[in-house]
Design goal:
The protein has a domain at 112-216: Golgi alpha-mannosidase II (Immunoglobulin-like). Helices cover 7% and strands 37% of the residues. The radius of gyration is 25 Å and the shape is globular. It starts with a helix and ends with a strand.
């Protein structure tokens, strides 16, 4: 991973978008956040200073203790090894507390510490011993990963980690493994007694005391200890190395950075990596039921308790997570149970999630959300993960739009026991399995679907549906197959929509182009099927970004006479009896494409691109300066 390029890219993307003071001429009203004070933090500062640019503080947490609604905390270049615990929140979107890196400066916040007291034991094995007091109240080498739906494969896993020059080693299952020859992945093993913590690690061919060797010390990097810390902005940082716990939907979800049952956070233009479990959490609070509710019935109980603890549009969610690079997290890049409702997740580059596969469980994905009520997930690049997006329970009013998926090992999009309505439009699904549909109420419109589609026949779990644009429970229902819509999609290869032919609930299918063996449903009203025509798809990366090249003439798609897709034409999701509409209740009209170009004419083109009829098409689908 080119860290320097990532930093420069995200800084360029963010600072190009800053507009400064925006004046509304009418009445000379200043429409912008009102900043009460700006504090500065620098590695050469002192917490006894006044916090000005000339006399900055030394620690971010000291600035946190003083920051009030409207204040800005600007952190200057350097590495800060601390856990940032926001104590106060803002009052509104216009009067928030902003934590930002200084323009053009690289600021790293790490949950690790540098270790330099390694002693060689034999060959490539070195040992470091630290007093337990070094870790304080939290010792990651004693802290076991555990919880609801966690599968540790019959061995112990700790939240500790060891890093050599930025790359993490793998935890050995037993000490004996460390003494073996170094293979592809160097190993470490830790042991904690009453007095000391000892770590053995493999450093092949190098002296670790002459390299940058870091170990996890802190559970999290930027996370409020209390709930209800609202309207916080976090922008422009590199944040790494968190000893995060397992984050199931039934427990408090602690990420490398997280919102902790709050409202109105903006997490933007950061580089986030190397969290033992989750990167960003938009999750729930903790209570005595944490990790004690591993069942469908147990999670229904979690939802009922959350409603009594403020799960509503007035107090929870409405977060904006945009333009971040998120990588090397072993559970999820972004995860949230209930606390991410009414949020927008856009423009993020999410990759290399759950790639080491030391443990597994039911919460692994680039983005994993429970209760994604009125959530927009748009314009993200998600690749080299186990699965791209997993929408589990109560995806209602959710829109998944203009995302670029590829090289995900399980699937690109998994919808599990949702009753809808949810809308999936203008996406590029390019992994071997594109869609895993265990839900109802979905509408798939203008997508490129190049991998397999799997639909489950029936799921007996009784799962909730809600009142429209609300968290209020309307009822529970099982999950029969059907109530799906497929309009104006370009489908290739192993896609087989005939599995919907025996659906219990209605299926609407029209205006789709099937190529290279893709099979339509018997419900298709107008389709073109070209079994022997197999277009070539290629993904490549150049200096300007990622390109999708498609070779093959799809001009016959003009004969489909595709119809525009709107709230009216989509109808209503059957089980919740709810319309496909915007979160504010206004109607939807899908008249733009993957690149946000307007679809012209009365008969829009098939697939995600408004202009895709050329035989050899090459499109920059993820610009580096996006």
């Amino acid at each position: 991973m080119n860290i320097g390029a990532s930093i420069k890219n995200f800084q360029r993307r963010f600072y190009r978008r800053l507009t400064g003071l925006t004046l509304v001429i009418s009445g000379m009203l200043v429409v912008m956040p009102v900043f009460a004070r700006e504090y500065h933090v620098a590695v050469g500062g002192n917490d006894g200073n006044e916090g000005s640019l000339a006399k900055p503080f030394r620690t971010i947490q000291h600035a946190v203790s003083l920051a009030q609604p409207g204040d800005v905390v600007t952190i200057h270049q350097g590495v800060y090894r601390e856990r940032v615990n926001p104590l106060h929140g803002g009052l509104s979107d216009r009067k928030r507390i902003i934590y930002q890196s200084a323009p053009g400066e690289r600021v790293e916040i790490k949950g690790s510490e540098v270790i330099t007291n390694w002693v060689k034991v034999q060959d490539n094995v070195w040992q470091a011993t630290l007093p337990n007091a070094y870790f304080g109240r939290f010792n990651p080498y004693r802290d076991l990963i555990h919880g609801d739906w966690f599968d540790g494969k019959n061995r112990k896993h700790h939240t500790g980690a060891v890093y050599l020059n930025g790359e993490w080693l793998m935890e050995a299952a037993q000490m004996e493994d460390v003494w073996k020859s170094v293979t592809t992945n160097a190993l470490w093993f830790g042991k904690v007694d009453d007095t000391n913590t000892t770590i053995w690690a493999q450093f092949k061919g190098v002296n670790p005391n002459e390299q940058l060797v870091e170990i996890n010390v802190r559970q999290t990097v930027f996370y409020p200890e209390k709930t209800g810390v609202n309207f916080i902005t976090v922008r422009g940082f590199t944040m790494r190395h968190a000893a995060t716990p397992w984050a199931p939907p039934t427990a408090e979800q602690i990420g490398l950075i997280g919102t902790h049952w709050s409202k109105g956070w903006i997490i933007e233009s950061n580089v986030i990596s190397h969290s033992v479990c989750a990167g960003i959490t938009l999750g729930k609070y903790g209570d005595e039921w944490d990790n004690r509710a591993e069942s469908a019935e147990g999670y229904v109980g979690t939802i009922v308790r959350a409603l009594t603890n403020g799960w509503n549009a007035e107090t929870i969610g409405h977060h904006l997570v945009r333009n971040n690079e998120i990588s090397y997290c072993e559970q999820a890049g972004i995860v949230g149970s209930l606390g991410g409702a009414f949020s927008t997740i856009s423009g993020n580059d999410i990759h290399d999630i759950h790639v080491r596969r030391l443990f597994k469980g039911a919460e692994m994905a680039g983005i994993k959300l429970h209760g994604a009520v009125d959530v927009e997930i748009s314009g993200n690049h998600i690749y080299r993960t186990c699965r791209g997006i997993w929408l589990d329970w109560m995806a209602q009013g959710t829109r998944v739009s203009r995302n670029f998926f590829h090289d995900n090992s399980f699937d690109d999009l998994f919808t599990e026991v949702d009753h809808g309505p949810y809308l999936v439009d203008n996406n590029l699904f390019l992994s071997p399995t594109s869609l895993r549909i265990w839900s109802q109420g979905g509408a798939y419109v203008h997508n490129l679907i190049a991998g397999k589609v799997e639909a489950k026949a029936y799921d007996a779990r009784q799962t909730p549906y809600l009142k429209p644009h609300s968290t209020a429970l309307a009822g529970l229902h099982d999950n029969p197959r059907g109530d799906q819509r497929f309009y104006n999609n370009l489908l290739m290869g192993r896609v087989d929509l005939s599995q919907f032919d025996e659906s219990k609930l209605p299926v609407r299918v029209a205006g789709n182009l099937f190529l290279g063996g893709a099979s339509p449903s018997r419900f298709e009203t107008n389709a073109i099927v070209q079994t022997n025509f197999v277009p070539t798809l290629k993904i490549s990366r150049g200096s300007d970004g990622w390109f999708l090249t498609m070779r093959g003439d799809t001009s016959s798609s003009h004969d489909l006479n595709c119809q525009p897709v709107t709230t009216k034409s989509l109808g209503r999701a059957v089980i919740p009896d709810a319309a496909y509409e915007n979160p504010d209740g206004s109607p939807i009209k899908i008249n733009t494409d993957y690149q946000n170009k307007i679809r012209k004419g009365k008969t829009p083109s098939v697939g995600p691109f408004a202009d895709a009829s050329e035989p050899n098409l090459s499109i920059n689908v993820w610009p580096e300066t996006k």
